[in-house]
From TrEMBL:
Transmembrane regions: none
InterPro entries (alphabetical): Homeodomain-like_sf (IPR009057), RNaseH_sf (IPR036397), Transposase_5 (IPR052338), Transposase_Tc1-like (IPR002492)
Biological process, per Gene Ontology: DNA integration; DNA transposition
Entry superkingdom: Eukaryota
Database matches in PANTHER family: SI:DKEY-77F5.3, TRANSPOSABLE ELEMENT-RELATED
Protein name as it appears in the record: Transposase Tc1-like domain-containing protein
Species per Swiss-Prot/TrEMBL record: Mucor saturninus
Pfam family, one: HTH_Tnp_Tc3_2
SUPFAM superfamilies: Homeodomain-like
Length: 246
């Protein structure tokens, strides 16, 4: 079946919304009546036929306004678009009809991808890290011991966030959900400081290496750039260990 272009779909929707029959719409747009009936059912929820009385309220201007709300203004739900139409244009159009319209225009809902909220320095550091380890093999990474972290939600939640995006277009800022990770490795009673962190490394890290039968000379210990981790007290202790700290 031949794919109908987005512009032709828009023309069909506009003609049907203005009260033209399937035959009249076919004559004006060059789209078959069968395709027009299918578009009408998806978009308007009814079969195309000559209308009696008032034409539908959805005009080409209304359609452009709806598309703008979800593609440029980043409105994330059809219900919210319905409220905006009611407030701004005094147009009553329910969320279901808006979803059908957007689907006909090739604009589909998707779950936002989660993306860490990073500063430019964070991004540069990550790129540098990736480039410096691009040649590492699976064997290399098996010698890496990562500091464990528990995720604590201090920024947003784990619920699913939806948005709208045109098919075959790149992700934009409005299509991702910014995330921030936080948390220290062990559950502790009180505040973590450099002395306590050093104690944890001395007792728990070394014991972990022993329990896992890992030779410290072959181990790379990785932790983040928290100020406590980079303190002179901790750095001096790490420099005197057999394992490498990254």
């Amino acid at each position: 079946m031949r794919q109908i272009s987005e512009s032709k779909r828009n023309n069909v929707v506009q003609c049907l919304s203005n009260g033209f029959s399937a035959r009249e719409t076919a004559s004006k747009t060059g789209v078959s009546k069968r395709s027009i009936n299918r578009i009408s059912q998806v978009t308007l929820g009814v079969k195309s036929k000559p209308r009696i009385g008032r034409p539908l309220k959805v005009t080409s201007t209304n359609i452009d306004y709806i598309v703008q709300q979800v593609t440029k203004n980043g409105i994330q739900s059809a219900s919210k678009v319905s409220q905006i139409l009611s407030n701004d244009l005094e147009l009553s159009l329910n969320a279901t009809s808006i979803r059908r319209l957007l689907k006909t225009l090739g604009i589909v809902p998707l779950i936002k991808r989660k993306k860490p909220l990073l500063r430019k320095k964070n991004i540069a550091d990550r790129v540098a890290f990736a480039k410096s380890h691009i040649a590492w093999t699976e064997t290399n990474w098996k010698h890496v011991v990562w500091s464990d972290e528990t995720k604590i939600n201090l920024f947003g939640s784990d619920k699913i966030h939806w948005c709208y995006k045109r098919k075959d277009t790149q992700l934009k800022q409005q299509h991702v959900q910014q995330t921030v990770k936080h948390g220290d490795g062990l559950f502790i009673d009180g505040n973590m400081d450099k002395q306590l962190y050093k104690t944890i490394l001395q007792e728990d890290l070394l014991r972990t290496l022993e329990d896992c039968h890992l030779n410290p000379k072959d181990v790379v210990f990785v932790h983040d750039n928290d100020p406590k981790h980079k303190s002179i007290l901790v750095t001096d202790w790490l420099n005197n260990q057999e394992f490498e700290a990254m």
